[in-house]
Design a protein that fits this description.
The chain has 236 residues and is α+β, with helices and mostly antiparallel strands. The chain has two domains: 5-101, OB fold (Dihydrolipoamide Acetyltransferase, E2P) (Beta Barrel); 105-232, no CATH class. It contains three helices and 14 strands. It has helices at residues 5-11, 103-121, 185-195; strands at 14-27, 32-44, 50-54, 74-79, 81-82, 85-88, 94-97, 131-132, 134-136, 159-166, 172-179, 196-198, 211-218, 231-232. The strands form three sheets. The protein has a seven-stranded mixed β-sheet with strand order 5-6-3-2-1-4-7. Strands 8, 10, 11, 13 and 14 form a five-stranded mixed β-sheet that branches. The longest helix has 19 residues, at 103-121.
Length: 236
Amino acid sequence: MKGTLAENYLEANVVGVIKILKVYEDNPDQRTYKADVEFEKIYKGTKFTTLNVRGQIGKSYSAGCERDVVPNERYLVLLNNSDNIYTVSYCSAMSRLNVQPTKDEEDQLEVLSKAFSYLETNKLKFKSSQFSYYHDQKQGSNPKSELSKINNFSPKQPFAIYRVKINNIFKIKEISPVIGFGSKDKTIEGIMKKNMTVNAPMYNNTSEKEEYLLLLFYNKQNINSPGKEVISNFWY
């Protein structure tokens, strides 16, 4: 279920932060094992205590979409179930976190919580829409994109969603905020139109699907990190 973060959230039954407690019941024939987990945070759905994991303990192959998890690891997970059984693999929507929580991580998860709440409240509005990612084609070898170099940026909220229309070479030709940052919004829109291309499926006729949604995050923790983005598709 790897897609955009917004799509994964909207499609998931359970979203939260889990910690792996133990792994057991290695089944070499089915190449699965189990992991007991505890939830540190729950953003959507109901907590569970056991995961099925594709692979073998200590012998999983990511090329086969198998995954190794070990006790004390922590993950942000966005999962669907089958008959109330949750199964994860390398291809699942889950992001590994630090073993020990940090202040930066707590801030990042608070931003995610606000974005998830907005998506949940407005999920009917997004039902027929498709989220995507963008790429700054003018960034080149620069460590930060032009978006991350905006001066005097003081957002009223830490995320924004833009509705964009693209041309036949995937550049943004129209952009309008569904919800903006509340600071430098026109500057952001101008940079997006000038610099960005949108990751879009290769339709035979791109006019069949020319409108997308882009979810952007304000990563305050990256302001003094030379190689990390302050305004980005990504929440870290």
